[in-house]
Design brief:
alpha/beta, seven-stranded mixed beta sheet, about 300 residues, 2 domains, Rossmann fold
Length: about 300
């Protein structure tokens, strides 16, 4: 099939509008429900092998020109509030790539968790997390460890929930895969990838984890997803379910549809650029983009 024909087939139908969904921060009650919404971030220089340097920092203070509260252990970002909402009551949390340690400290201050480990691989965020824990007087409840990935978890921690936020999906996948020895299979995984959701979902499926909840979050013009999973009976997801998210495809929230409308426009533009390219584009690359565009078009139909 010619590139131009692929681009034409994958065009927007015109019947879908870009929808947004307002969100309010989750309060101390931290509901356990699952909403499909949206949020942003870009981890700082000390985070574990982040794949999206162009995105805003997970917990960095707002720039001087940006209105709104300063983000810290008392005022989490909208995205981290939604991550927090999936942490079970009385959990023993391991926050891997914790940066300043805002998430575990906020949850401990609210009385949601009973203990936590904040793991960091780089010295600067490690010291930042230590400082946040110390300033809040939580040294007995939260342990800050300098370690690579899940190596921050020790058997005596009796961890029941693990959060990995603000990294690329493939980075999260690799951290989980290399740290399998630290997983006992009873913990809840609360994952917030900066892109790369498809390979992350495949790892979950291949390793016996069922996706319990998914959200799309939009904040500061960036789309992010939250994936919550637990070990369960073997589950099989189709290629399209791994691409979009099996629960997202069912819920079809306004935020989810709006995200994929934006992505479809980008795929369409890419195919049009391929058609005008002076040099031949590898056929497998063209077919891959075209297939994704066709999946999205069907989704939005």
């Amino acid at each position: 099939m010619r590139i131009g024909e692929l681009a034409k087939r994958s065009g927007l139908s015109g019947q879908h509008t870009c929808l947004t969904q307002a969100m309010s921060p989750v309060g101390a009650g931290l509901p356990r429900d699952c909403y499909a919404r949206q949020a942003p971030q870009n981890p700082g220089p000390g985070r574990i092998n982040l794949n999206s340097p162009a995105l805003p920092d997970r917990i960095a203070p707002r720039s001087s020109g940006e209105k709104g509260p300063r983000l810290n252990e008392q005022t989490l970002s909208m995205r981290l509030e939604r991550v927090a909402a999936h942490v079970p009551a009385a959990a023993r949390l391991a926050d891997i790539g914790s940066d300043h340690g805002y998430l575990p400290v906020a949850l401990m201050r609210r009385g949601v968790i009973s203990a936590a480990v904040a793991g960091e691989v780089a010295m600067t965020p490690f010291h930042a997390a230590q400082r946040t824990v110390r300033e809040n007087g939580l040294q007995q409840q939260i342990t800050v460890r300098l370690a690579n990935g899940l190596a921050a978890i020790e058997p005596t921690d009796a961890i029941t929930a693990i959060s990995l936020c603000g990294m690329g999906g493939e980075t999260i996948r690799d951290i989980l895969d290399s740290g399998k020895a630290h997983l006992h299979g009873q913990e809840r995984l609360i994952l917030q990838p900066n892109g790369g959701e498809q390979p992350l979902r495949r790892w979950l499926m291949d390793n016996g984890y069922r996706i319990l909840c998914e959200e799309v979050l939009r904040e500061n013009r960036f789309d992010y997803e939250i994936i919550v999973a637990e070990r369960a009976e073997p589950v099989s997801y189709s290629a399209e379910q791994l691409y979009f998210g099996p629960l997202q495809m069912q819920a079809r929230s306004p935020a989810f549809l709006a995200k994929w409308q934006r992505i479809l426009r980008l795929k369409q533009k890419t195919l049009n650029n391929f058609a005008r390219a002076r040099h031949a584009v590898p056929e497998d690359k063209v077919q891959d983009i075209a297939r994704q565009a066709q999946w999205i078009t069907r989704l939005l139909a």
